Amino acid sequence: MTSVVLEKVRKSFGSLEVMKGVDLTVDAGEFCVFVGPSGCGKSTLLRIISGLETQTSGKVFIDSKDVTDAEPSKRGIAMVFQSYALYPHLTVAENIGFGLSLARRPKAEIAERVKQTADILQLSHLLDRKPKALSGGQRQRVAIGRAIVRNPKVFLFDEPLSNLDASLRSQMRIELTELHAKLGATMIYVTHDQVEAMTMADKIVVLNGGAIEQVGTPMALYNNPATPFVAGFIGSPKMNLFEAEIAAREGCRIYGIRPEHIVLSSTEGKWQGKVRHIERLGADTVIHLDVPELQVLVVRTDGDRQISVGETLFASPVNGKEHRFS
Amino acid sequence: MRRRQIYTGIAALAACGVIFVLPFMFIFITAAKTKQDAATLKFSWPAEWQLCQNFMEVVQTRNYMLLLAYFNSTVITVAAVTLLVLFGAMVGYVLQRRPSRWNAVIYGCVLAGLMIPPAVVPTIWVLQMLGLFKTLSGMVLIQLAYGLGFTVLLFRSFIATIPRDLDEAAIIDGAKPLQIFFRVILPLLKPVTVTVIVVQSIAIFNDFTNPLYYLPGRENVTVQLTLYNFQGQFQTQFNLLFMNILLVTIPPLIVFIFFNRQIVAGMTAGAVKG
Amino acid sequence: MTTRKSAYPYWFVLPAAVVFTVLFLAPTIASFWFSLTRWDLFTTQFIGLENYRQFFREPFLIQGLVNTIIYAVLTSGTKTVLGLLLAVLLTSGLWGQGLLRTVIFFPVLVSTIGVGITFSVLMHPTRGLINVALAAIGVHGPGWLTDPALALYSIIFVDLWKGIGLATVIYIAGLASISPDYYEAARIDGATGRQMFFRVTVPLVRPATVTVVTLSLIGGLRSFDLVWAMTRGGPGFSSDVLASVIYKQYQAGFYGLSTAGNVILFLLIGLIVLPLTAWFNRKEVDL
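ok -> structure tokens follow
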């Protein structure tokens, strides 16, 4: 059971600073998700923890040991790549056992550990196949198997579900969460998808432009975003965010209200507007209201509410759910 | 298929047949003739088929020199090609994977190797100083030096298609550089390795100029040198001369039959990218 | 910042670099020095540019230089033009075009000495197949390799016979990379076959053209095997090229002069190929 600690980690490529002094603690056994838009540095941070990338300054501790200068294979980590990086010329069994055969473990030991890992992931019937004969989900599991067999202290996942289609992705989300529960290992997971972050994480780290915006549990980030960036990033559809005069009227620099925290009425409310656009999702309906002082207000309401374009509606924020950022 | 395409095709085949196939037929039928028949240099069917006798006679000439020549040529080709694949892949690998200032130098050397004619007499001087002049090992190293440019180019562009992820996965699995190279990269280089082996084997086997300069001497004959030397010997025995030519043509022909695709791929590498 | 060992160590390059430097770079650099000496492998005597002056004084040496340029330009030019035409022909859907490509390409792989000897025999003034065939239609065939005015050009013909297949195959690969969309657009624009060739095919096949021109120029300038096998530079020195001059001087023991020939060849290649490549790169068509 290991913790990962990052102290003032900085990374620059020449004059371009991509990591601006990150301090972070990942607790033992935690499922921690790094999330943020493209280019925010989440993959870079993961690769620095893994040792594949060297930081410009700062320290990395895994299990209280300073691994800042250690080789990736000596840090007690294992990584699952976005592309899985399975060796195409090796069978599933050889892929999983590759690290062990590099370390010259006896054949019997390798076979035994590969079998155990394959059993955990239901890969036992695929051991003699080559990667090109596997489906996307199966390849994913082989990549995870290769990580598990190393008995790592920390698992690192670099956007592992990005290459899967939507239905497979939700299934794999559940499998990964169950795997985490079963193994109880510390896992650091990188994604740009906030749904994955919200559903899988014990702790979310929101990154933007090489710096941490906020760290917290999913619901903490949802209910109490520390910055407008986090507020707009977490939650779908995006939170309505207003600046300038509207915010000034509400007594802050930026004013935010989530679409799901707005009540609609045909008779009275704080804002009045015309329905410009309707998105019917089945269970919900998302409405874009043209409100004069707000320009566009996005509202989420029940799926079976009768609305038509051009209709005039009143909208009011739910008490206690407004966000004011200074 | 349109009429015009069929007619043009047949016409083209006839023209190419005369221009490109006739000389080979001439080689074959002359190689099967008797000495007198061959002396006429006529494009005629052999009056008497002496294919086997001519074969035996050529092989036995000058104490089975042809066999020694084939042995030497094979040794040189196999050794040089093996080293070329190994070293060429290693250089192509570092060149492609590790961006550094040295890359420009390496590229420069590759281009130089492809363009600059070897300075033969100074090379002999160097070989003599190293005690490698007139030796098979010296010849192997020469072929290695001269063939590296093209080989590195081929490997470099192929390695570009192997995702770097695989290297990183291997690093995390604890692989050291040599292990990554031999256990992950090299197995995946099979297609281009075949191409390199095939193209370079033919080039080295057919090489005349370099053995002429660097491997003079009776003990050091190669297949091409033997053919050249026998020109004088067989001045009045065209049947034997052409049997020799036939024998020299057969190995590349066999390789061509089996590896046509790889040969063409190797030789057109760069034609599309430029 | 910590520097950890790279997974791509420099020493991977070492064995190749050593062999290349010792057996190629070093002699090339040394050749500049040796070309300024009278050299017989035991003694070297600095004589300045005397070797070069000799090169441009002696008729047989000048002839070699001139012949080399003629050889290179003619073979390269023909291979470039004819190769493209053949490639277009062999990708037009002819009956048996696969077989045609094989037949044209095979000579590329055959021993140059073998080809040289075979054609010397075929070009025999009286009994050679070529003149016999010509006589059959009433034409008196010349001494292809015995007439000093013709010898070089006969060799050039054989060089083309042997090498056109490679140019064709390279062009075929280049043609395959041109998307049919361009031809369809041209057809809609009403282009004739000839216009499509010059306005679509030729510009877009440029990478292949550059390869063919460069390879055949370098090959032509360095040509030795064929010349040596067919005429040894004769009759006299009418078909000598730089490479055969270099060898002859080496055989005669004039190592300094021979090496000077090497340097001249080196400079010749550089002076012709480098500007050409630069010119090509500037006119590159970016797709």
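The two ends of chain C are 42 Å apart (CA to CA).
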